[in-house]
Hints:
By secondary structure, this protein is α/β, with parallel strands linked by helices. It has helices at residues 3-17, 20-36, 38-42, 59-67, 136-143; strands spanning 45-47, 71-78, 81-87, 93-95, 101-103, 115-117, 122-124, 129-130, 147-152, 157-158, 172-175. Keywords: ATP-binding, Ligase, Magnesium, Metal-binding, Nucleotide-binding.
Amino acid sequence: MYLKEKLRQRQKEVLKIENIKSRQLEEQALYEQLFQTPDWQTARSIAITLSMDFELNTHPIIIAAWQENKRVMVPKIVNKKMIFVTIDSNTLYTSGSMSIKEPISSDQASEDIDLVIVPGLAFTKDGKRLGFGAGYYDRFLKQYVGHTVSLALADQLFDDLPTELHDEIVQQVLYV
């Protein structure tokens, strides 16, 4: 089996069984790091995923952004392309591509995105990332000119990861 696919499967299994208590402490430390970065503090709009159960919980980040009057946009797959849709506390959701929660609305956000919080299964300190394999973020990041950051739980941090020419680097990886 292909190396990246094996690593994806392993990471999903590891993240699903991680200790809830220690994970909450790690997540809190990562949120605090994120909120102290200049990119977060100056961003007027952020793009972030709606996390799945085994991923770092993004809900507290979304709430913090709203409390700071930041616009929040989340990805939605439309016609095999990733777009970003603005959400608020009244947004309605459905299960979309790859069973990921996404807004029912397909109204693409008209605002520029100041900061993209890039998801992944594994990261290196220098910005390499192992995504979920569909390539949506790599295609988006290839043309995106703003700031990017990823939050890596301890089990997601690696010394090195296999990469290919189409893999895009994240500008900053926060880790504990």
